[in-house]
UniProtKB/TrEMBL annotation:
Family in the record: Belongs to the XseB family.
Record-given protein name: Exodeoxyribonuclease VII small subunit
EC number: 3.1.11.6
Domain of life according to the entry: Bacteria
Keywords from the named record: Coiled coil, Cytoplasm, Exonuclease, Hydrolase, Nuclease
């Protein structure tokens, strides 16, 4: 699933998990599973944000190095 996972989808799923936990609608039997999934989604989002930051910074550097900029 990670091959097609987007930041928006991961964030939405995280919100859903958080809401379920906050509202206590998660069964104790699957709570650990939900927390583990949330951990995976958080890591995915952090990696995506770091990669985007690097890419944006590279674009800005390229723009600053262009003549006439």
């Amino acid at each position: 699933m990670n091959q097609e996972l987007t930041y928006e989808a991961a964030y939405t799923e995280l919100q859903q998990i958080a809401e379920e936990i906050e509202n206590e609608t998660v069964s104790v039997d699957i709570l650990a599973e939900k927390v583990k999934r949330a951990s995976v989604l958080i890591e995915f989002c952090q990696q995506k944000l770091r990669a985007t930051e690097v890419e944006v910074n590279n674009i800005i550097k390229q723009m600053e190095n262009k003549p006439g900029a």
